[in-house]
Design a protein that fits this description.
The chain is an alpha+beta fold. It has 13 helices and 21 strands. The structure holds glycine and manganese (II) ion (2 copies).
């Protein structure tokens, strides 16, 4: 196994410095995610908030970041106190003192001191940066703290008069990945690709979707991912035409395709991979025909990922290849440009060709600026994931019924084009059949 990549604390502090510079003046308050109860005393696995993690690398729940901009900037963390009793039951807590040193804050407070200390930090600040509406419980607390400050008005203290969304600054920063983030994403991609290879090796008719899911999850965790990046889709046969199928509880049949959309998360960074292959290891004629169209669309779309192209260029490229392919299969008739204009592909391809990828599988960052698709630039990371989903219909020859195919890779925009992070997961028909029959390509 490769050596563990650990968070670079200096980098997280430097990100906070950049946020402070962009704020100019005012105070930013950002809470991490709450713990969520699943049922009774059982919690969902804890996952920190992505924005909070990006700026702190602090992974404990009940923590709040406060940044005060201006001539004397301050970086402040509220976190849980040390508590021997709780640490015996639930594990280690840094506590404010160790957290200040380890995570390079100027000041730290106990989380329990929020109601006393936070209003003081809002005093006389012109602007409050905050994740407005993210969590109604937090909105209520924040309004309470603002009112506490306002109540002191006669003593000459003022409350922030402007409220801005903190995420606007952080989202734009998150959109461009630094070298450390790219290394984490490459690791998430490598581990996840190994899971897909394992799934291709073991898959046989008669197995269940859940058994393939188990194989994937085993490899994600064994490779070092802390969690799956999202709920795995393991969809045999007709289930592949259900875009968000997550039941994963049906048997796999000889002659069907299997669509797997699954990947792991490594120190917060997601991979997002889809592969589609025949349960029995050999593509049938109709499966092959549709697969080659989706693969051609995907390769052409990846070619369109380069600096200077717009966000939508890969999607437009994929649509053209898919629509031409549907004409070739005689599933659509008419002239290509007209079919594209009418969106005639929509019954077979109803989603976009990708999304930003990073700490969130559908990552932060605007897709349009001032109404126009934004331009791709080095450091952006995105998925490229065209597909075709052919449901039973009178207008469609039976050989194509229930063929659902998506091929999804993760790519990083480079200075000259792009780098495919997930190329270790086989996707040509030859490679897939080789791996399924001989274990390797
Ligand atoms: N796995 C989620 C997506 O492909 O967008
Ligand atoms: Mn995706
Ligand atoms: Mn996906």
């Amino acid at each position: 196994m490769q050596a563990e990549l650990t968070p670079d604390i200096a980098l997280h502090r430097a990100r906070r410095d950049r946020v402070l510079q962009q704020m100019g003046a005012g105070v930013l308050v950002l809470a991490t995610a709450p713990e969520v109860i699943r049922n009774r005393d059982a919690h969902y696995p804890y996952r920190y908030d992505s924005h909070f993690h990006y700026l702190t690398a602090f992974a404990e729940p009940e923590a709040v970041l406060v940044l005060i901009a201006g001539p004397e900037p301050r970086q402040i963390l509220f976190c849980r106190d040390k508590n021997l009793e709780r640490e015996i039951w639930d594990g280690f807590r840094f506590g404010p003192e160790a957290a200040r040193e380890q995570f390079r804050f100027d000041t730290t407070f106990a989380y329990d001191a929020l109601d006393d200390e936070l209003p003081k930090l809002l005093e006389n600040q012109p602007t409050l940066y905050y994740a407005i509406g993210f969590d109604p419980a937090w909105d209520a607390r924040m309004l309470g703290w603002l009112n506490t400050v306002r109540a002191k008005g006669r003593t000459g203290v003022s409350a922030p008069s402007a409220l801005l969304d903190a995420r606007a600054i952080i989202d734009e920063m998150r959109l461009i990945k630094d070298a450390h983030e790219l290394a984490l994403m490459q690791r998430a991609a490598d581990i996840s690709a190994a899971g897909h290879v394992a799934a291709q090796r073991v898959c046989k008719p008669g197995m269940g979707e859940w058994q393939i899911e188990a194989e994937l999850l085993y490899h994600f965790r064994k490779g070092g991912c802390q969690a799956p990046a999202y709920t795995s889709i393991v969809a045999g046969g007709a289930n592949a035409c259900v875009l968000h199928y997550v039941g994963n509880d049906q048997p796999l049949h000889d002659g069907d395709l299997l669509l797997i959309d699954a990947a792991g998360e490594y120190h917060g960074y997601a991979a997002d991979i889809t592969r589609t292959f025949p349960v029995n290891g050999r593509f049938s004629g109709a499966q092959r025909d549709v697969y080659e169209i989706v693969l051609a669309a995907q390769l052409a779309a990846i070619d369109a990922v380069k600096p200077g192209n717009t966000w939508n260029a890969p999607h437009d490229t994929a649509l053209r290849v898919l629509t031409q392919g549907l004409r070739d299969l005689k599933l659509l008739t008419g002239e290509l440009d007209g079919l594209l204009e009418q969106e005639a592909y929509k019954p077979f391809y109803m989603h976009k060709t990708g999304h930003w990828l990073g700490l969130d599988v559908h990552d932060a960052g605007e897709y349009k600026l001032n109404g126009a698709w934004r331009t791709l630039q080095a450091g952006m990371t995105l998925t490229v994931e065209p597909g075709l989903y052919i449901r039973p219909s009178e207008d469609v020859p039976k050989a194509f019924w229930n063929i659902g195919i998506r091929i999804e890779d993760d790519v990083a925009v480079t200075e000259n084009g792009c780098h495919v992070l997930t190329s270790a997961a086989p996707k040509t028909i030859t490679d897939i059949e080789q791996v399924m029959h001989h274990g390797t390509r």
